[in-house]
Amino acid sequence: MNSHRKVIIIGSGPAGHTAAIYAGRANLAPLMFEGEMAGGIAAGGQLTTTTEVENFPGFPTGISGPELMMAMRAQSEHCQTEILTKTVDSVDLSVRPFKVTVENTTYTADTLIIATGATAKRMGIAGESEYWQKGISACAVCDGALPIFRNKALAVIGGGDSACEEASFLTKFASKVYLVVRRHELRASKTMQDRVLANPKIEILWNTDPIAAKGENLLTHLSVQSNKTNEQRDLEVAGLFYAIGHIPNTAFLNGQLKTDETGYILTEPGTTNTSVPGVFAAGDVQDKKYRQAITSAGTGCMAALDAEHFLT
Ligand code: FAD
Ligand code: NDP
Description:
Strands 1, 2, 5, 6, 7, 8 and 19 form a 7-stranded mixed β-sheet that branches. The chain has a 5-stranded parallel β-sheet with strand order 10-17-11-12-13, covered by helices on one side. A 3-stranded antiparallel β-sheet has the order 14-15-16, with no helix packed on it. The protein has helices at residues 14-25, 65-78, 128-131, 140-143, 161-170, 190-197, 293-311, and strands at 4-10, 31-33, 52-53, 63-64, 82-84, 90-92, 98-102, 105-114, 118-120, 136-137, 153-157, 176-180, 202-205, 208-215, 219-226, 232-236, 239-242, 246-248, 279-281. It has 2 domains: 4-119 and 246-311, FAD/NAD(P)-binding domain (3-Layer(bba) Sandwich); 122-242, FAD/NAD(P)-binding domain. It is an alpha/beta fold. The chain binds flavin-adenine dinucleotide and NADPH dihydro-nicotinamide-adenine-dinucleotide phosphate (NDP). NADPH dihydro-nicotinamide-adenine-dinucleotide phosphate binds at residues 123, 157-163, 165, 182-183, 187, 243-245, 288-289.
């Protein structure tokens, strides 16, 4: 195969596939490395780990996450993208063309689109894998409106802006929301804290650690323990939402692109330009605020257009 390309796309979520569709239609014959369980996530990205996606436009009654990603992959191929099910080990951005190393093979590219996403942190408590997506989720905005959570008590873990935002959001559907915080204070901004503290549907459990998820087919209880008194109790909850942060999948870049202090790639506002000309970043790997399929797809489109512009 041709090991030199005008565009190589790394990552295969909505950002990578949208970039592929646009780059393919611009006759750039992109090559995509879709990853092989990179960061523990199947090719197709985070949406392959969920059930119904109800907020991606074009599907009036929703679509399953895996089905949506299969359709995007088929569309990328239809638009002349070559897709390899391999994980990129490293890149060399100090040379032109850029080098991309995969299992001891080196590919070269005039432009690179980094769309490797981010991975929601998990806690590893007892019962977590059993009830993952059967009551446990890492995305309240995505899953909160599902019927299994309506008018039920729910729990959110974390004390940052995400946890506060998600707890507030969930009160639209839930009868009550427990916010389980490991310290005696919130990390979130003052505005977010005030919003949570003023919401009568939210009860904050301070100095509390979750220890086990329990249920039958679906989650029914969360065991928590005070880290002050060691007292344990079972909360009757239908949903458990982790909001303890994400890890952007940027380790393979080995510090060659500027990132913020938590590893998210920095892009020039209003563009997908990174600190290295010719390298573009799209999707969750450069966005710790919105983290949605549609925003990822939007920046994937921008990255392909930015790459096309760079090449001309
Ligand atoms: P990702 O989807 O994270 O995909 C990146 C891909 O790149 C992964 O497959 C990864 O394995 C691969 N990769 C990583 N490193 C490498 C490497 N070195 N080489 C090759 N490949 C690599 N959003 C919504 O809008 N609606 C929803 O209903 C919704 N539900 C969600 C439910 C869950 C459980 C989760 C976790 C998220 C949900 N989201 C939802 C958020 C949405 O999934 C993300 O915002 C979106 O998938 C981000 O897309 P992305 O293209 O940036 O990357
Ligand atoms: P953060 O890293 O800010 O917060 C993570 C929270 O989870 C912290 O309270 C942390 O506790 C807690 N936590 C981490 N690990 C564990 C664990 N193992 N057990 C229990 N609790 C744990 O992540 P966020 O996703 O909240 O925010 C990321 C960034 O995005 C921030 O910069 C935030 O400001 C920004 N953001 C902004 C929003 C907005 O402006 N609307 C909305 C959402 C995010 P501890 O405090 O003890 O470390």
